[in-house]
């Protein structure tokens, strides 16, 4: 089952030197309650049906020029599974006109997100519910293993960490220039 590119979003990667998990030095979760830095972005109605942006220029268009140096551009792919109470079923991903991901992006890992149907992404149980203790997160506060991410999403749904369903997202970020 291949992941589907569902959009782009600019956000600040948060440094977390006192992170609850050993080895985590920045938070790169899908934008949600703790990582979204763009006030009122949804009110511009430039997002797609997955509450992300179809291309890089639209995504960057919501960030003031003076602030762009503080942001990174992320891209997200979704594994087409909806993890609901007691069930994992195929997720319906609309046909989106998302610009292809280019080679300037690097894969950072997998995030688990709760998302009510037809709404923006809400919370990552890894971060919001401090479930990092159940797994080994990488330095980006993400999971390296796709199967582990799906298994944990199923476990989080059974435990009712956040209102679901849950989705597993691949997190990509435009490569940063060498210092």
Provide the fold topology.
Elements: E1 4-11, E2 14-15, E3 26-27, H1 56-60, E4 72-78, E5 81-84, E6 87-90, E7 105-114, H2 125-128, H3 146-159, E8 166-174
How is this structure best described in words?
- This protein has one domain.
- The protein has three helices and eight strands.
- It has helices at 56-60, 125-128, 146-159; strands at residues 4-11, 14-15, 26-27, 72-78, 81-84, 87-90, 105-114, 166-174.
- It is globular, with a radius of gyration of 15 Å.
pLDDT under 50 segments (min length 5)? Answer: none
Classification by helices and strands: alpha+beta
End-to-end distance: 37 Å
Rounded to the nearest angstrom, the radius of gyration is 15 Å
| Proportion of residues in extended strands | 25-35%
Number of strands: 8
* Helix-strand topology string: EEEHEEEEHHE
Task: Sum up the structure in keywords.
single chain; 179 residues; alpha+beta; 4-stranded antiparallel β-sheet; two-stranded antiparallel ribbon; 3 helices; 8 strands
């Amino acid at each position: 089952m291949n992941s589907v590119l569902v959009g782009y979003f600019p956000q600040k990667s948060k440094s977390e030197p006192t992170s609850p998990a050993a080895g985590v030095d920045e938070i790169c979760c899908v934008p949600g309650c703790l990582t979204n830095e763009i006030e009122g972005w949804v009110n511009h109605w430039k997002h797609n049906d997955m509450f992300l942006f179809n291309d890089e220029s639209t995504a960057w268009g919501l960030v003031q020029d003076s602030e762009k140096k503080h942001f990174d551009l992320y891209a997200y792919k979704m594994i087409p599974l909806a993890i609901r109470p007691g069930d994992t079923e195929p997720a319906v991903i609309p046909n989106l006109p998302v610009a292809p991901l280019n080679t300037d992006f690097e894969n950072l890992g997998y995030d688990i997100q709760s998302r009510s149907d037809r709404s923006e992404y809400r919370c990552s149980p890894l971060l919001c519910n401090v479930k990092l203790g159940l797994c080994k997160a990488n330095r980006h506060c993400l999971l390296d293993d796709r199967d582990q991410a799906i298994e944990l999403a199923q476990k989080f749904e059974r435990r009712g960490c956040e209102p679901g369903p849950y989705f597993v997202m691949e997190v990509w970020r435009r490569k940063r220039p060498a210092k």
